[in-house]
Amino acid sequence: MTRIMISAGEASGDLHGADLARALLEQAPGVSLFGMGGPLMREAGVELLFNPTSMSTVGFVEALRSVNVLRRVLARLGQAMDERRPDALVCIDFPGFNMRLAALAHSKGIPVLYYFSPTVWAWGKGRADKLAQLDVTILAVFPFEAEAYRQAGCRVEFVGHPLLDRVRPSGDRETVRRTFSVSGEQPLIAILPGSREQELDHLLSPMLAAARLVLEHKPQARFVLPVAHTLRAQDVSMFVREAGDLPVQVLEGRTYDALYASDAAIISMGTATLEAALLGVPHVACYRVSGATYQLARFLVKVPYVALPNIIMGREVIPELLQSRVTGENLARELLALLDPARQAAVRVELSQVRARLGEGGAVARAAAAVLARAGARPAGSG
Fold first, then answer.
1. What are the domain boundaries of the chain?
2. Helix (H, G, I), strand (E, B), or coil: what is residue 13?
3. Does the reported pTM lie above 0.90?
4. Taking the domain 3-162+362-375, which CATH number applies?
5. Is the dihedral of CA 350, 158, 16, 365 positive or negative?
6. 349 closest CA partner among 285, 277, 297
7. Which fold would CATH assign to domain 173-357?
8. pLDDT digits (tens, 9 = 90+) for 262-305
């Protein structure tokens, strides 16, 4: 029996890991999947040895609070490698931990693949050099990512981005808008503060302050706030109530519908900005971390943009606000600009080009095939 260990440490990694697990089981029904992940991976058929999604960290300084826990988890997964001898390890994002796990697997002779690998185009090539030394196969989701890793001497399989297949609203835009009780010309704005408690603490207050300011100019505006599955909707609802009487509808899930129905959005920096781009939603990307983390990141980061749509296009397609610029006033100003029909139409045209640059669908199936090939497994029906 082919045995594959999968390691994912955050909400987004849990989602990608679950999709990959389903594709692996479809292509090789007898494969055994185990490792670290969250509830979505468990539902997809992965035996979880540890669930870290409740303690995933944001930055350098924040990560120190979890170091001792991560060491214990690393030891536990290393023990599982010795006991079960997986035919391959698949690391998904979570580089602070997974880089160490990859090195441990390599030392035990276990082939390693990295899906949603460290962003070496942003942080420099140190991690890419290390992954090349470990003979890790990079399952690249962006064309520029594939090129950066090839230049570092890594094995690379360009599989494409799974969001091209996943990002789908439940119906046409007008139908979806009606489910939120929004009339034809009534502005609807989505608020996505992130999937971690730290992001909620740093971003939701200025986002709600921006909503209040937008209402002064657009009194008919309404807001939707889809809550990530890593957060409790009741906690977010309480946060919103404490901010005062605001027309904010808090949702459990329905992120794609909320974005698709909206005229504009405020979004925490990360995968959600790419999801909004694929749905053609003009948005403001923002992020705030501790001062020490930000200063170190400024020293290390090698790219002019932080939001994925801007990185993909190589220019500012959507506005970015970082650190002290993340205020209610600044967010409201950018939102009001995006609600202008001419500006909105221009941004939608730019966002349509983001999808075109990401290539074709079928990424998860290609990733699963690459994993099985590295593990030495034969997909079902291969003869």
1. 3-162+362-375, 173-357
2. helix
3. no
4. 3.40.50.2000
5. positive
6. 277
7. Rossmann fold (3.40.50)
8. 999 999 998 899 999 999 999 999 998 655 444 444 544 566 88
